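Annotated sample (chain length 213).
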Amino acid sequence: MLDDEEDAAGLTRRLVREAAGAQVIWDFDGVVGHTEPLHEASYRELGQRREYPFEVNFFDALVGHTEQWIWERLIAEGFPAALDDIPALHRERGEVVAQLALGTLQPSWLAATLMPALASVASEQVVVSNGDPDLIAALLDTWNLGSFVEVARRTPGRDKEALFRGLCVPPCVVLEDSDAYLSLGRELGAFTVSVRHSHNPRATLEADLRTHL
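Output written by the structure step:
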């Protein structure tokens, strides 16, 4: 979290001004919920089921990428599966993540504080994520945040980047923990807010405003 309550209050006041009449785009993993530890744990669980040991910091290079990309990389590095197995791996890991998230995950202080605060000034708030939109929507409803934000849904052939580019039309505020999407947001003319957390310590996170979980 931020250093003190005044900092949190100051961030809220700044974003209320920036979000007036704007589209607000939330990343989910690492911004709305600190899910990266759960995702890391899920990959480790699937590795343990196959007696495949991951290195201590294996997940650092995977944060922010699509699951398809991650599995292709892991399989190329020796994970005991074939590319044809990726759909089944995706389903298996999704079950693990859903169980962990629904049982233990809480919203970040950013989401719990800012989603209600921005609801009355933003034109819309939307979650744009590589994650499972049904699970994200269920978590938002569980946290009583679903009424403040929509969950963008990918259609065949449209990944997170395609959704992001379609929605990030100024005036726009972007809250992200990924260098790639912060850079893309700036390129598209958005006001960017970077989020530092335990799983992106080496990211640059250049943005108009910086905060951390």
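Annotation: Residues 150 and 189 are 22 Å apart (CA to CA).
Annotation: The chain has two domains: 5-34+106-212, 36-103.
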